[in-house]
Amino acid sequence: MKRKLSPFAGLLVLMLATLACASPAGGGGEQPSTPPDQVATIVASTMQALTRTAPEPSTETPVPTAEDELLPHSFYYLGNDNAGLLQVFRIERDGVTQKQITSEPVNVSSYDVSPVDGSVVYVSNNQMLLIDADGSGRRLLLDGGAVDQNNPFLNNITNPVFSRNGETIAYGHQGLNFYALDTGVSNRVLENDIDDLGNNLLVPRELYWPEKYSPDGSKLLITLGYYEGASAAIYYPNGSVLVRLKGGEGALICCDQTQWSADGSVFYSANRSTGMFNSGLWRVNAADGQVTTLFTSNYDTGTFNYADEPYLAPDGQLYYFFLNTNSELNSRTPLQLVRSAPDGVTGRTVLRPDTFELMNEALWSPDASFVIVAFAPIQDVYFGGQAEVTYLDGRPSVVLTTFAQKMKWGP
Q: What is the pLDDT of residues 246-258, one digit of tens each?
């Protein structure tokens, strides 16, 4: 399934996705320059008021318990260092303790976290690097060289992704590649297809880069990039099989807009605005790539359905952000948190009265008891924002950091 865009829109998609949104101020606003660790005292005070009473005085060093843990896993994100550069940071399970993992002289553009030991693979200055969870042991895995500014897709490194066992890194560089950590050997399984029109005019026919593994690690969701659009596909590493999408014309299914089900049999994708793609919610069968439209907008009847950040939780319910209205909205849609059956329609229930116009990104807790939302400081900032734990039961939110982008769970 290939989405058609104008040449300008296609280049925009490729720029945003392949360069991994290196700047959080891509929408026109400035990055917050306050380092994440400056809010630790505020967060600690809030946490104490919300979660527990003060312990009895003791001369012994306290041992963390489950009651002290706000988060189910360590929380990783891109944040600004003291120089205003994007680096990888981690917040521990207590929701307070923060550590800067990387210290690069230029922005970190993309990264991933090993689900095994918390080590981080990341891209900076078109180099793919690996660093231990404590920030030590920085080593170079691949140097892509200086990026061709006229044709960055020729040699830029994009979107490294750890396999579920932490032994392999999938990444984009002149195609889809797999790097074996035990041997240091890289294997390219899909070669980028580029048309040479002469006079140094190169046009990408089809580009490949990874997005995320299925929970069982047997499948890898990848983006297919075109000059006039983008799509998605499922790659099976064990059999070297590429499954393309079928159906769902007008759907936005690409570029990290997707979420796997726990069993890896399907994944969901949503779009919160109208424009180059339809708004709505879609489900994709990973076995054959068949796209099912759960709901979308109808211009003939003037009924518009918007959705974002779908997550099929262990309780079998689908959680996502949703709005039904008779207005066409292109950005900053006032979505609400809802829950429904896996079909996205049956039993749909609003979980909170507030709306999420300024949401740029969300990360669900594994049990769907809360979602971490990155709120933009102003409407014109479209990447990252203040990361807040938003509870579905109505408890007050807890601020984790003043700025976070590309939020991920660690071990």
A: 998 878 787 777 9
* CATH code, domain carrying 132: 2.130.10.10
- Exposed/middle/buried for residue 190 (C-beta within 10 Å: 0-12, 13-18, 19+): buried
pLDDT above 80 for 34: no
Residues 6 or more apart from 293 whose CB is under 8 A from it?
247, 248, 251, 280, 281, 282
In a 3-state reduction of DSSP, which class is residue 305?
Answer: strand
Residue linked to tokens 């069982």: 216
Q: Which of 355, 347, 405 is nearest to 376 (CA)?
A: 405
Establish if 113 belongs to a structural domain: yes
Written as one string, the DSSP assignment of 6-36 is -HHHHHHHHHHHHTT---TTTTSSPPP-S-G
Residues 133 and 117 sit within 8 Å (Cβ to Cβ): yes
- pTM of the entire predicted model: 0.83
Alpha carbon distance 118, 408 (integer Å): 11
pLDDT score, position 67: 63
C-alpha span between 335 and 81 (Å, rounded) = 31
